[in-house]
Amino acid sequence: MRLIELLRVLRFGIVGLVAAAVHYWVVIALVELVDIAPLRANVGGFVVAFWVSYFGHRHWTFADAVATHAQGAHPSFLRFLMVALLGFCMNELLFYLLLRYAGWPYYLALAFVVFTVAVMTYVLSRLWAFRHAAQP
Fold it and tell me: Residue 100: what pLDDT?
């Protein structure tokens, strides 16, 4: 693995951990403090974490690829939004299944789901959402 890609993976991990922590704690706060059902609170956690993730990845993880893109941030934002929405659909489905059929406590199911979906998000972000014009 090239050094630049290794650094990108490290930056992705840091931004991802911060976004995952934000997602997790927003859900916990909404469930425990506002008494919102976990599946609904998960939507709020996703919305807040999406912005943390987008700005972190755009301005730090994939800054080299985005900076050289002739059209600026708009295409990468739309692609990242699509990646994030796909990830959230997978997140919500897996969260539902673990709550409904496996009987996991919501805070354990949420932790498992948030980190499981991160791998797919990295691959799609790297190969599609934040690729620059010269990449396939």
Answer: 96
